[in-house]
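Can't paste images in this forum, so I'm doing it all in text. The chain is below; anyone willing to post the predicted structure tokens underneath?
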Amino acid sequence: MTDRRLLFEAQALPHLDAAYTLARWLARSEADAQDIVQDAMMRAFRAFDGVRGDNVRPWLLAIVRNCWRTRARATAQRRTASLDDEKADEIASADAGPETTAIQSSEARRLNLIMGLLPDDFRAVLILREMEDLSYQEIAETLDVPIGTVMSRLARARAMLREKWLAGGHDGLR
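Text version of the structure:
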């Protein structure tokens, strides 16, 4: 193995789950997310010599986002995102009783459906901040936007999420 490959594996592979999570939410499909992450990792490996600094995560997530955009333009695929029922059930606590588990599972499904209704730019900021715990600076680097844009999109995304949650999400979501 080359030193370059070892360095790439040490710095990029720990962020594979974050890359998949972002791709899954953006692509709205497990199969597409897997393809996007595979493409992104190949592109990242080829461009790895150009990485500046030690924080590879925002750089890698930006590549994932760009791969998704390229794929979305090519397929013009726009569907409502929601995780599979199995994924929503995994979110519910295994230690809780049946009633609590059912409520948590239902709420997780509802949240996933509502997240899928948010515009892509707002959903991406919300995912990167709340699910991937990126700093505003890292989100700005990932999305290639100013920090002020990150902050305003995050505030608007949270407001939209809250509004849709309180309104029941969409027709048929109560």
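The radius of gyration is 17 Å. The chain has a mean pLDDT of 81.
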